[in-house]
Design a protein that fits this description.
This protein is mainly alpha-helical. The chain is 68% helix and 0% strand. It is built from nine helices and no strands. It has helices at residues 4-9, 22-38, 46-64, 68-88, 115-141, 144-153, 158-187, 199-230, 248-267. The longest helix has 32 residues, at 199-230. It is flat, with a radius of gyration of 23 Å.
């Protein structure tokens, strides 16, 4: 069973990608996402360009020495969200297209598939996959506290980094709380898929569990934040631990990646 601790352990490995400055990796991730999203919604070269970017990202995954099992499991866990959006596109007629070509297939309920909608759906899925791969690569090679510090150093608003740091601090804690709740339910023979129990009662119990976690997180966050304020949090001293400078290899990686993206866009 894959746990959050196993996934976090990946970021503590030692490789050329892990040793890159977190700010450089964050800017690289932003560049990949912006490029993928900015590609035309329908274009004959979209898939080739996105495939080339995906290959480059996978080469970085191999260079980082990441566990491919954890890496692809994280992609598969998020992929259904993008897949759901992409699957419904062939049945719609995008407003940015004037002329449509119907796919020769008889479907019930008066549904029809267009070539343009199918192309748009495939492009959306490819863009989603590239963006998710870049994000998972960044999170798998960067420690959680370094992510927050890098975002703060490149000028992301303090409100966002504060919320992110609070989430990171208690992500593992509340995962443990959820596991204890699930263990307590199982010892009482609670099974969410038990057909002999009224579904309404099962839904109420699941809702109570979720509400309990939200209440605990609110109370814990409030106590912790007040304690941090009493100890001078917010004066700027919390940034003192992150004073690393951008090195030559970091600049080289950023220029190399920018050159690869530019080459793919112009010549692929």
């Amino acid at each position: 069973m894959v746990t959050l601790t196993d996934i976090e352990r990946e970021s503590y490995k030692d490789s050329p990608v892990h040793r890159l400055d977190p700010r450089i990796k964050l800017l690289f991730t932003f560049a990949i996402i912006i490029y993928a999203v900015s590609l035309p919604r329908i274009h004959e070269k979209n898939m080739v360009r996105l495939f080339a970017i995906e290959v480059y990202l996978l080469l970085l995954v191999l260079a980082a020495g990441l566990d491919l099992r954890y890496f692809f499991l994280r992609i598969l866990a998020i992929l259904p969200f993008g897949l759901t959006i992409a699957l419904i596109q062939p049945f719609f007629r995008p407003s940015f297209i004037e002329n449509y070509t119907l796919y020769p297939l008889d479907l019930p309920f008066g549904l029809s598939i267009t070539y343009e909608g199918l192309d748009f759906g495939i492009t959306l899925l490819a863009k989603f996959l590239v963006c998710i791969t870049a994000i998972i690569l960044f999170s798998s090679t960067t420690r959680l506290r370094d992510m927050v510090a890098a975002a703060d150093r490149i000028g992301i608003p303090r409100e966002f980094t504060l919320l992110l740091s609070m989430m990171i601090r208690y992500l593992f804690l509340f995962w443990a709380v959820l596991k204890r709740i699930r263990t307590a339910q199982q010892t009482r023979l609670f099974d969410i898929w038990n057909k002999d129990v009224p579904r309404k009662w099962v839904i109420e119990q699941v809702g109570n569990s979720i509400s309990s976690i939200f209440i605990r997180s609110y109370e814990q966050g409030e106590r912790t934040y007040i304690s941090m304020l009493c100890r001078g949090y917010g004066s700027g001293h919390e940034k003192a631990y992150y004073r690393t400078k951008i090195r030559a290899q970091d600049i080289f990686f950023l220029l190399l990646s920018a050159g690869c993206i530019l080459y793919i866009h112009l010549y692929v």
